[in-house]
């Protein structure tokens, strides 16, 4: 799998502090009793900003950082887009909403919602009253025009409530409902069993298809992390941790992802390029069983979750069932008007293997030989002209970029 020369997407864990006491929390610094002051984050941002294309602001609960507003102002000065991952239990909801509304770089909020009612949600958060407060502030945020996605960890308490969670998310004004498998140490009293997880996945993909088909009252539904295709074929896709994405914790330590406890090094002491290409991170990337190399779905799921293998000291993702055969199938089709004028709406960045087209949290690696076609996607040439210049394969390439959301058609 191709690895970018530097990470483009950074999760910034502002603080370990949180009001919830989630049983399945992925917070890797629980028990640490300090939070960095703003000057530390200003220095950290100075180190990562030259490489970053997108930030995910997280924690703990990031809004509890004592200098949260100043950090947002700094992000606005830097000009890099970000999303805020939050439990929406804000000490001053209107202040947070106004702050984010006034920051053009804020692409929206990802809000933890673990059930369609208080009993189910709070079975995960372990915090009475958290459901009502979260829902109230999500509604305030969406009423104010902020884009909100909900984020749900699938558990033994909510695996059969997927449809109700989506219904609630839509009623609160959310644009998308995201579902995640639990990643952490074994928790038999929290994790759904395999039968339950497969049923939840069937519901997720059915709801996702309804949204794609533009059925009435359907909001976007997707997976937020990787479930191996050999466990159940689904629309889940592989993780980009260690490939294009990394995490920076409150002390400036770089990790491959928010779930991984492995500290690669500190960005205040070592250049990011050196950390990214270190033996430590290369060994982490290699946490994939050899049998995955011959799997027909490797390009889809990337071999499963490395962080979970690391956390549980396993040689493969615990849901993995073995390699699947390669099946020749037609690529997803799209019909484009020949007079349309395609234009790249992301950035084209050079890489040792060729180029990568980046738009927000999306990135598409392309061959060195595709550069002339990329240069032609300037919004002036029609699809018919591009086919005349480069042939039918160029149109197939344009269709692929369109499907992946990095070009628009005028």
Question: What is the gyration radius calculated from CA atoms?
Answer: 21 Å
How many DSSP H or I helices? 14
Strand order of the largest sheet: 7-6-5-4-3-2-1-8-9-10
Tell me the total number of β-strands: 15
Shape descriptor reads: globular
Q: Would you list the SSEs in sequence order as H and E?
A: EHEHEHEHHEHEHEEEEHHHHEEEEHHHE
The separation of the N and C termini measures: 33 Å
Largest sheet: 10 strands, mixed
- Structural class comes to alpha/beta
SS strand fraction:
15-25%
Mean pLDDT: 90
Low-confidence stretches: 35-39, 328-332
Q: Looking at the chains present, what oligomeric state does this protein adopt?
A: single chain
Textual characterization of the structure:
By secondary structure, this protein is an alpha/beta fold. Helix content is 32%, strand content 17%. It has 14 helices and 15 strands. It has helices at residues 38-48, 68-78, 93-101, 118-125, 130-143, 162-171, 194-212, 272-276, 279-285, 298-301, 306-311, 371-376, 383-390, 392-403; strands at 9-13, 54-58, 82-86, 106-112, 148-153, 176-180, 220-223, 245-248, 253-255, 265-266, 342-344, 347-351, 354-359, 362-367, 407-409. The strands form 3 sheets. Strands 7-6-5-4-3-2-1-8-9-10 form a 10-stranded mixed beta sheet. Strands 12-13-14 form a 3-stranded antiparallel beta sheet, with no helix packed on it. Helix 13 crosses helix 14 (392-403). The two termini are 33 Å apart. The model is unreliable at 35-39 and 328-332 (pLDDT under 50).
């Amino acid at each position: 799998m191709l690895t970018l020369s530097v990470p483009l997407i950074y999760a910034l864990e502002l603080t370990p502090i949180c009001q919830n006491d989630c049983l399945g929390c992925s917070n890797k610094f629980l028990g640490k009793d300090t939070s960095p002051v703003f000057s530390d984050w200003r220095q950290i941002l100075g180190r990562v900003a030259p490489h970053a294309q997108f930030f995910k602001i997280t924690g703990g609960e990031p809004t509890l950082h004592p200098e949260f507003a100043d950090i947002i102002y700094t992000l606005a000065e830097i000009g890099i887009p970000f999303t805020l991952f939050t439990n929406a239990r804000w000490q001053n909801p209107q202040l947070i909403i106004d702050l984010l509304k006034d920051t053009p770089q804020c692409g929206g909020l990802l809000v933890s919602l673990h059930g369609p009612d208080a009993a189910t949600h709070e079975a995960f958060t372990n915090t009475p009253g958290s459901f009502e407060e979260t829902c109230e502030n999500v509604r305030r945020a969406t009423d104010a025009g902020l884009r909100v996605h909900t984020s749900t960890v699938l558990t033994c308490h909510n695996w059969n409530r997927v449809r109700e969670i989506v219904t609630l998310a839509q009623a609160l004004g959310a644009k998308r409902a995201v579902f995640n498998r639990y990643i952490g140490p074994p928790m038999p009293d929290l994790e759904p069993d395999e039968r339950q997880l497969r049923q939840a996945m069937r519901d997720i993909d059915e709801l996702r298809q309804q949204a794609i088909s533009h059925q009435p009252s359907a909001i976007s539904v997707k997976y937020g992390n990787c479930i191996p295709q050999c466990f159940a074929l689904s629309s889940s896709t592989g993780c980009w941790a260690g490939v294009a994405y990394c995490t920076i914790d409150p002390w400036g330590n770089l990790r491959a992802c928010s779930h991984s406890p492995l500290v690669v090094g500190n960005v205040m002491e070592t250049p990011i390029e050196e950390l990214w290409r270190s033996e430590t991170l290369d060994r982490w990337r290699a946490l994939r069983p050899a049998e995955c190399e011959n799997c027909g779905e490797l390009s889809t799921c990337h071999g499963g979750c490395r962080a979970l293998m690391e956390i549980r000291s396993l040689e493969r993702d615990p849901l993995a069932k073995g390699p699947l055969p390669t099946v020749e199938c037609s690529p997803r089709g799209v019909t484009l008007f020949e007079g349309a004028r395609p234009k790249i709406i992301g950035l084209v960045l050079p890489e040792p293997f060729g180029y990568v087209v980046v738009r927000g949290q999306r990135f598409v690696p392309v061959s060195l030989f595709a550069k002339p076609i990329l240069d032609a996607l300037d919004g002036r040439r029609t699809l018919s002209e591009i086919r005349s210049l480069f042939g039918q394969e160029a149109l197939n390439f344009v269709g692929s970029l369109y499907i992946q959301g990095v070009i628009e058609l005028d």
